[in-house]
Amino acid sequence: MDLMNIFDYTLVHATIRATTPILFAALAAVITQQADIINIGTEGIMLMGAFVAVCVSFFTGSWLVAIFAAMIAGVVFSLIMAVAHIKYNADICAIGTAINLLAVALTRFLLKQFLGASGTFHDPKIVGIPKVHFDFLTSNKYLNSLFNDYSILEIFGIIAVIIFAFLLYRTVWGLRLRATGKFSLATETAGINIVAMKYQVMIISGVLGGLAGAHLSIGYSQLFTENMTNGRGFMGVAAMFFGNANPIFSWIGCTLFGLIDSIGARLQSYGWPSQFVLMLPYVITILVLTISMIHKKRREIKIKSSLNKTEE
Question: What is the DSSP string of the chain?
């Protein structure tokens, strides 16, 4: 096995491509975590967004309409979670798990009813998200691979990281949101409507989850397969914990997942067992969560130790 064929310059493009759906899922988890809501349902929202994007693209022939439809589907599912959790005080992990199970069953049913397929649906009528291409870069294979043929959502994903980092840490809205998650009682006493803030972030989370699914089905590929998210929503949540709900650091975690996914696909072409390759992202997810929890625990111990010294 030639390692140079695995770790070559084309790995950058492959990594960004694989990272994007996980990145949108991570941002969806980041924005809700700031309001102290763990969005476990990101996986289900992604899956529903992926199906709706393929279905709408197939029937309308418009990738743009398909993206908007996927975002609407994501918002509908996120609002179901929001109402159950915020209004009726349902456990967010329980309702998130229910959303994930509902999405698996519902997409399987709708795939059969609307598209007449089982398992996988692929058709030339599905219009994918266009890619950005610069003709003047094609003469150089390195520049062509590094900067050409990125999906619009792959570019927007990187921009979205910067936008959310700015919103969370440089705006009044971001300050109020972070206060809602950390000091909800004090925030409410200050006259801020924390219920409205939580609904806002759940809607934004639904939009991002829908985008994640749309990229997966009509950006990353142009088909729909049952349960095609394959744990990417959970990877996004893991990346959120890795980055401590910070968009920039969470992006780093997503890139790690995307890198492992891309390397795994290349290892499989060299005869590595498919079971081992498919296992890699989940092993990395467990490692990332373990490291994140250890880091969080050490930080809490350090803070408690500092407070004790101050009291003394």
Answer: --HHHHSSTHHHHHHHHHHHHHHHHHHHHHHHHTTT---TTHHHHHHHHHHHHHHHHHHH--HHHHHHHHHHHHHHHHHHHHIIIIIS---HHHHHHHHHHHHHHHHHHHHHHHH--SSEE--TTPPPPPEE--GGGTTSHHHHHHHSSEEHHHHHHHHHHHHHHHHHHHSHHHHHHHHHHH-HHHHHHTT--HHHHHHHHHHHHHHHHHHHHHHHHHTS-S-EETTTTTTHHHHHHHHHHHTTT-HHHHHHHHHHHHHHHHHHHHHHHTT--HHHHHHHHHHHHHHHHHHHHHHHHHHHHHHHHHHHHHH-
Q: What is the mean pLDDT of residues 154-159?
A: 95
Both tokens of 55, joined, read 């279905």
- Sorting pLDDT into bands at 50, 70 and 90, what band is 310? low
**What tokens appear for 198 in the block?**
């939580």
> Per-residue pLDDT tens for 80-103?
999 999 999 999 999 999 999 999
Could you read off the pLDDT of 44-53 as tens digits, one per residue? 999 999 999 9
**Distance, CA of 47 to CA of 257 (rounded, Å):** 18
CA distances from 102 to 93, 96, 209 (A): 14, 10, 15
- Phi/psi for 120 (5° steps) reads -135, 140
Enter the tokens of residue 196: 């409205």
CA count, 13 A, side-chain hemisphere, 79: 8
Length, in residues, of the chain: 312
In this structure, the number of other CB atoms found within 10 A of the CB of residue 115 comes to 16
Residues 6+ apart with CB under 8 A from 110: 51, 55
Torsion of CA 37, 184, 23, 298, to 10 degrees: -90
